[in-house]
Design a protein that fits this description.
This protein is mostly beta strands. The protein folds into three domains: 7-224 and 307-341 and 393-431 and 495-631 and 696-735 and 779-797 and 804-910 and 920-958, Maltoporin, Chain A (Beta Barrel); 234-306 and 342-392 and 432-494, no CATH class; 640-683 and 737-777, no CATH class. It has eleven helices and 55 strands. The strands form 13 sheets. It has a 22-stranded antiparallel barrel. A hairpin with a 7-residue loop joins β42 (779-796) and β43 (804-820). α10 crosses α11 (751-760). It is globular, with a radius of gyration of 31 Å.
């Protein structure tokens, strides 16, 4: 069999490699004719973005294909890590996210969020989280034949979530034989070891095929303490940015303007802190000194920089031809992931002034004021360095699909069909080690006494609290005993489950003859039910944990989808139109929670000459609210906000603001109380609640693309594609900030937002006027508009005596990324800007070179990230690139993060016994990521590579 492809078709359908420069072709089989002459039979294929099986792989939408060779040559142990390197990827969660990570890894096309990128496996939806995103680590890379990335919206074809694009992982359908593969790699610092072992077995007969794959991957942790850029919270600033929650016990007292302790919060000027001397007896007030930066704690060094992740999977896939035209197909997967994150010991702080319910009792044996004339309950803080916090996940994923597919001829027309049932489920158990049982802590810091036997007991001599171990928070590091820790600590156990069940039926085929060819159609139906729950530990949901409280989540919805798609080849082989083709599609969806939505698309392909394809697409899209959006239990959060009713707010001088605040019962002279003291725009001393909203509607989107593919006949082997794209989202699900809602209600006088504040928000105030309850709910208010260009150049050099060379240069340029929190708000363009966890690069570019000579091969890939700017915090003015920058509103210092370029190389050799050995280095020149003052804890964003060269070697044996 030989490959028979059109030159321009190759420019579109051949694999474009973003991690290694490799190519593969779609199979267009050429068979011998009965007359002995060559006749070409072109197989019908289904390309991501259309359900119509076609001979031509060219589509009106831009598609990036990563083939099996690209996966093998990337030097990465997961599909998620490979997709992390493509230029259209934004900032998805990955295994470098420690604080806030859960071991999962996703894909985020166009930077619009993982929940707005639809992930398919063999054209079918994959199991998602309660929040709607997909963990790509549930899909073993050994079973993936290729990855098709549709860089356009496709809700009219696939339904919800296909706003930013579609990632379709195609498994190894007709694998015959056996393949064993082992991999080992580690960083140049000697850590972060990764090992993979997988075995794939396939067998084919005249009637069918079965493929079985077993794989195990183990990725070890990298500690933040082992890299200079991450061992301090902010690189280059040392202890000045350490946490004020010291590992030594501290006493916090209110003092007045003269520096004297006071119990009257209205007279208090600030909170002052005293720290116990190293190794001293905290029961003596003479053993304390005022807090200084030397007492701060470096929490960063206790974190993971790269989190551990262990995955084991079993995948089975089969096809059996019942007749020549009907086949049974099935695939099933079991995957288990064990992952973990690590944080510094819990920063405990108790007492009324620290938002706690109870300080150190005046009757505690460890209270230094006990027995004095000024005996009093003390506000205290101490970091539990004796026990670091661990968060561990055990995630089990099940997938099953079973169905029938076939083809038939009717009225001289050809038709394909399939029906099937899919079941997907995630079961996740989370363990939290190092959190504190606050009920036990309050007992342990209550009254206590020294017994005649020299042992400290809880309670009083006349009422001993059995089983209680008194806790001494005013101690030096290492002085808290294991018995004290065992009494106050607990291990939280949370359980999650999300389940998806769907029934699908599709048919496609020929309709009627047009001047350009046979018109085609596809139509189908899907019934799907989504359900899930989040059951937090009983202590967590009761608010008895030192962490933020979270209420259970439980709910589900179902839907019915109907779609139809048309392909209309209007002209072909005429002057000015070697091809002119239109595509139309529409999808009607009926959801049990929000109702109905219809989404349509229109696309065209036009070849004015053989070497040029012009293409364009207009599409409507939507994203249905996820289970956590609709039914998520309330979660406590200590938000920072500005109360316009505070006397020091920039708006309170306005008479209308004063009037509205007085009408709301805010007392005269009120000044906002915060965790750090008094003042506007601080952190709330009372936990606010982040809540869901069962009345949410779908997000809606409009996608537009226009571009061309040029494959000049006079420049053999060269192809160029350029595509403009624009995505507009309305009704985006967002959680407006407390400040925004309060400003709209009290400053702008918007009654709608007042209803949100007091209705959904449940706003209440304490007797001093401080907001003591506020529910921050989700609303369909935000809007997002993103626009850019994709440019790809590809060149296969003529064969030489020195081997074959293949170059790919892939670029994604964002011209505009604007968002606003409400339709009436101001647009904010964030292109080229960085804020915590959200890099918006203007340009990402990959250049790959692939070389083959006989049994030898090598690839070199260069990955480029353009520079970013970030706001410059006050503490870093001396180090920022533009500390004196000013805008119309005043001073606005900025810092520039320089562009970053990584280089990866792999060398491989095909062994005579059908084996292959490969060695490689990712980040050849040991490039560090740019230092950021806005990044959290590690001084650089998790989307950049872990610092250090990564060396690996792998062996593959085919049988």
């Amino acid at each position: 069999m030989t490959l028979k492809t059109h030159k321009l078709r190759d420019a579109i359908s051949l694999a474009l490699v973003a991690g290694a420069a490799a190519v593969s072709g779609n199979a267009f089989a050429q068979e011998a004719s009965p007359t002995g002459q060559d006749a070409t039979t072109l197989d019908r294929i289904e390309v991501t973005g259309s359900r119509i099986r076609q001979v031509d792989a060219e589509t009106s939408q831009p598609i990036l294909v990563l083939d099996r060779q690209a996966i093998e040559q990337s030097g990465r142990t997961s599909v998620a890590d490979l997709l992390q390197t493509i230029t259209t990827n934004g900032a998805p969660i990955n295994t470098q996210v420690n604080n806030g990570g859960d071991g999962s890894a996703g894909v985020d096309l166009r930077g619009l969020g993982s929940a707005r990128t639809l992930v398919l496996v063999n054209g079918r939806r994959w199991v998602s989280s309660l929040g709607g995103s997909v963990d790509l680590n549930t899909i073993p890379s050994a079973m993936v034949e290729r990855v098709e990335i549709l860089k356009d919206g496709a809700s009219s074809i696939y339904g919800s979530d296909a706003i930013a694009g579609v990632v379709n992982l195609i498994t190894r359908q007709d694998f015959d034989g056996a393949e064993a593969h082992v991999y080992y790699g580690q960083y140049s610092q000697g850590d972060g070891e990764r090992t993979t072992a997988d075995f794939t077995l396939g067998s084919s007969s005249d009637r069918g095929n079965i493929v079985i794959g077993i794989s195990h991957t183990d990725e070890k942790a990298v500690s933040a303490a082992d890299r200079a850029i991450s061992r301090d919270p902010v690189f280059g600033f040392g202890s000045s940015q350490y946490s004020s929650f010291s590992n030594y016990g501290q006493i916090w007292d209110l003092i007045d303007a003269d520096g004297n302790p006071t119990g009257d919060i209205n007279e208090a000027a600030t909170l002052a802190r005293w720290v116990v001397n190293d190794g001293a007896d905290g029961r003596d007030l003479a053993n304390y000194h005022p807090f200084s930066s030397a007492d701060a704690y470096n929490y960063a060094k206790d974190n993971y920089l790269r989190t551990p992740n262990e995955r084991t999977s079993l995948y089975v896939q089969g096809r059996y031809d019942i007749t020549d035209t009907v086949a049974f197909v099935t695939d099933a997967l079991y995957n288990e992931r064990l992952s973990a994150q690590q944080l510094a010991g819990f920063p405990l702080g108790e007492g009324n002034y620290l938002s706690g319910d109870q300080g150190l009792s005046a009757d505690s044996y460890y209270n230094p004021t006990r027995g004095t004339a000024n005996a009093r309950e003390l506000n205290w803080s101490r970091r539990l360095v004796e026990q670091e916090r661990f968060y561990e996940q055990d995630v089990k994923t099940w997938h099953f699909y079973g169905g029938f597919q076939g083809s038939f001829d009717f009225a001289d027309r050809y038709f394909d069909w399939d029906v099937g049932y899919a079941f997907n489920r995630n079961d996740q158990t989370d363990m939290q080690i190092g959190d504190v049982n606050m009920q036990a802590l309050r007992t342990a810091t209550g009254a206590s006494f020294l017994g005649d036997d020299g042992v400290v007991y809880c309670g009083t001599p006349d009422a001993v609290i059995e089983g209680c171990v008194p806790f001494n928070p005013l101690s030096s590091p290492g002085e808290i005993t294991q018995e004290q820790l065992n009494y106050i600590l607990f291990t939280a156990k949370d359980k999650y489950q999300n389940t998806s069940k769907s029934y699908t039926a599709n048919i496609s085929g020929d309709l009627f003859q047009l001047p350009g060819g046979m018109a085609g159609f596809a139509a189908g139906f899907e019934h799907r039910k989504e359900s899930g729950y989040d059951n937090p530990d009983a202590f967590v949901s009761a608010g008895l944990s030192s962490g933020n409280a979270r209420q259970p989540t439980s709910g589900g919805y179902d839907l019915n989808d109907f779609y139809v798609e048309l392909l209309l080849p209007v002209l072909s082989d005429v002057p000015g139109a070697q091809l002119l083709e239109f595509s139309l599609a529409t999808r009607y969806s009926d959801y049990s929670n929000f109702g109905e939505t219809t989404n349509s698309k229109f696309g065209f392909k036009w070849k004015p000459i053989d070497d040029l394809l012009v293409r364009g697409n207009w599409a409507e899209g939507f994203r249905a609210p996820a289970i956590s959006n609709l039914f998520g239990g309330a979660a406590a959060s200590y938000d920072s906000y500005g109360d316009p009713c505070s006397a020091d707010s920039p708006y309170f001088s306005r008479p209308e603001v004063q009037q509205r605040c007085a009408a709301a019962g805010v007392p005269e002279g009120f000044v906002q109380r915060t965790n750090a003291g008094d003042g506007y725009n601080g952190q709330t001393p009372y936990p606010f609640n982040w809540v869901s909203n069962v009345d949410l509607g779908p997000e809606t989107a409009t996608n537009k693309t226009l571009g061309f593919v040029y494959s000049p006949g006079y420049f053999s082997g060269f192809d160029l594609s350029v595509d403009w794209w624009e995505i507009s989202i309305e009704g985006a699900i967002s959680r407006p900030s407390a400040t925004y809602i309060l400003d709209q209600c009290f400053v702008e006088g918007d009654e709608g937002f007042c209803d949100i504040a007091y209705g959904l928000g449940g706003l209440t105030r304490d007797t001093f006027g401080t907001i003591n309850n506020f529910n921050r709910g989700l609303l369909n208010l935000a809007e997002v508009e993103v626009e850019g260009f994709d440019v790809t150049a590809r060149y296969r050099l003529p064969e030489t005596n020195y081997g074959s060379f293949w170059l790919v240069w892939d670029n994604s340029y964002i011209a505009r990324y604007e968002s606003r929190s409400t339709p009436e708000g101001e647009w904010d363009n964030v292109v080229g800007e960085y804020s915590q966890d959200v890099p918006t690069w203007r340009l990402r570019s990959n250049l790959g070179v692939n070389w083959n000579l006989g049994d030898f091969g090598a690839s070199w890939t260069t990955r480029y990230y353009s520079g970013l700017v970030e706001s410059c915090p006050t503490f870093a003015l001396s180090a920022c690139s533009d500390p004196d920058r000013r805008i119309e509103a005043g001073a606005d210092p900025q810092n520039r993060l320089p562009s970053t370029t990584y280089h990866d190389v792999q060398v491989r050799y095909e062994l005579p016994w059908n084996g292959q050995v490969a060695v490689g280095v990712n980040n050849v020149f040991d490039k560090d990521p740019p230092v950021s003052f806005q990044a959290f804890a590690n001084s650089f964003d998790s989307q950049y590579d872990t610092p250090g060269q990564f060396y690996y070697m792998e062996y593959r044996q085919r049988f």
